Amino acid sequence: MKRFEEIKKMIMDLEGDFEKFYDKDNQAAGTRVRKGMQDLKILAQTIRTEVQEKKNADTK
After folding, report:
1. How many domains, the chain?
2. DSSP string spanning 32-44?
3. Tens digits of per-residue pLDDT, 22-49?
4. At how many degrees (to 10) do helices 27-58 and 2-24 cross?
């Protein structure tokens, strides 16, 4: 559940930048959104790997 909390925090931290980019057309906020989304993608892949490893370990 720790990883899930990390994801929620990352998304909440990006909320302001999403608003600035989409509502106020702030280009710098768009750069921060893109970086945040890349970090989120990396974390998601890490979680997928952990889940698969745990699944495989439990079936042995």
Report:
1. 1
2. HHHHHHHHHHHHH
3. 999 999 999 999 999 999 999 999 999 9
4. 160
